[in-house]
Amino acid sequence: MATATITKSPTKKSGGRFGVYGGRYVPETLMAALDELEQHYEKAKRDRSFQRRLDELLRTYAGRPTPLFFAQRLTKKLGGATIYLKREDLLHTGAHKINNCLGQVLLVERMGKHRVIAETGAGQHGVATATVCALMGFECVVYMGTEDMRRQELNVFRMRLLGAEVRGVDSGSRTLKDAINEAMRDWVTNVRTTHYLLGSVLGAHPYPTMVRDFHKVTGREARAQILRAEGKLPKVIIACVGGGSNSIGIFHEFIKDKKVQLVGVEAGGRGERLGDHAARFSGGSPGVLQGTYSYVLQDEAGQISATHSVSAGLDYPSIGPEHAWLKDTGRAEYVSASDKEALQACTALARTEGIIPALESAHAVAEVIKRAPKMKKSDVVIVNVSGRGDKDMGILRENLKLD
Amino acid sequence: MPLRFQRHPSLVAYLTCGDPDLSTTRDIALAAIESGADVIELGVPFSDPVADGPVIQRASERALRHGTSLLQVLGLAKEIRQRSQAGLIIFTYLNPILRMGIPRFSAAAKDAGVDGALITDLPVEESHDYLAEMQKRSLATVFLAAPTSTDARLKQIAQASSGFVYAVSRTGVTGPRQQMPEEAPKLVARLRRYTDLPVAVGFGISTSAQFKAVGKFADAAVVGSMIVETIERNPGKEAESVAQFVKQLSVVGRLS
Q1: Which of A260, A285, B99, B255 is the most exposed place for a label (fewest CB within 10 A)?
Q2: Does residue B29 form part of some domain?
Q3: Contact call for B48 and A14, based on CB within 8 A
């Protein structure tokens, strides 16, 4: 791995750090808005009525708690570890993204802003944002790369049906990274009236911490559920990692349980060459992209590389800074699954359990398929099924040729 | 090399380096200086220019297509320095500098004869190591001040800045605008409470009238996108076209 001469700590006194990673690298115009957001969030965190309202929406609107399902046939088929699936795919809007959107939209209300912008890759975060904006009566603009609009066209329609404006982004690779650039440009322009509802544990402080906190509910539930079902903690937890929100959400509650192995699965794409994958930890090095210091896929001159993945939600050249820290400290392990493995895993889960995972989540399923046969029956594994595959029917049809 | 702001208002001209190619950028810079620019901002093209509007985004894409790098921009600065005593500032996003290493960057910048740098996405809070390295070599550190900056932030920005302070005229990305925003004079007045450094106003200044208006309340105006657009519109005669534009700005727009 090519590691350039990067100073150990690019900062000494700013907040929002995970080891050396994180921070706040944005144009000055946004600094006051980030301060404001941080203050409102810190206050809301300590406010019981905020938490009560959020909990109620999560329960009565989003559909929490989500089940922890014992995947009996998959367990038997793989012949090793006992496998459980955390069913975030059953949430309203079809993925874990709604957890964070409900939290942030309540903050928007407290800040007295009325316009919400968001970026989206696979469209799941865009749909969740459009949904909570409809729920609250806020104006909503979603930026989406035109390449992603093409491959997730059903979600584009869903956002429009929900009353959101979807703005196509035609620059760069026309995927998630470029959608974030455009959302940041909108935010820099309309910062006084607009909240940027960032959809992953990325970006400048306080986003990586705040978004993680809103997703921690997944791990909290999973921990209680597995203790009830098995009377012990799992040996391994597996989740896919794009920006890293669903994975940090399920990992976080288990970080203190040192014996629980945390495994993040990145997009291996179609090969190891730079530009053919989104495996930041095997192919990247520390750098700053879109507000945060973390691992980044980049060239020798510090230009950000193109990425590829069959799943739009994992197709991003950087990774949440807390994951960078979990990786460096060895607390979590990061592997990758190729496009092909993810597509196979998607079919496998559909046919053994009757569950069609999103292509993102299928990367996590691919890892359990590799890993479970080498484990004992008494070893428990939880796989986070972060989203459902309905949105991917177009891509699945193209690739699986079942017609 | 001190940054001089003797004319009023002084003109800071921004160029996206490597658009259309490095030797043309050198010719454009020298022509702009000859025609009345006091400081040249040498823009390092970056793959993800979040603070820039469409004009500079397009220029960056063109420059990156043939691999323009920070190292090459420093080489270009050295060439310009051999022929001119005008102020030279490296204008960049942070990641190319991190990739090179901050100590190596400041050494190379000093060696090239550059006067200082401005990093768009590096707020004061995150600038500790960078400030230390730049100060060690007496290189200016220019920071951005925005209309949304609180007084407490303006004070920090003023303290961390050297050479000059760059006041962002409005919330938004770079690019020409019809009107001079009302926020700019207020921001400059607020900044003056914390610093005696020259203040340059930028973002959206494209006409001699706007240039002249800035002269009434600030020391210098930064003109960027309009120059970059002039380059885009005049393939093959970039330097002459920019020279003509700069001449017109400074003849009509300068008070003295």
Answers
A1: B255
A2: yes
A3: no
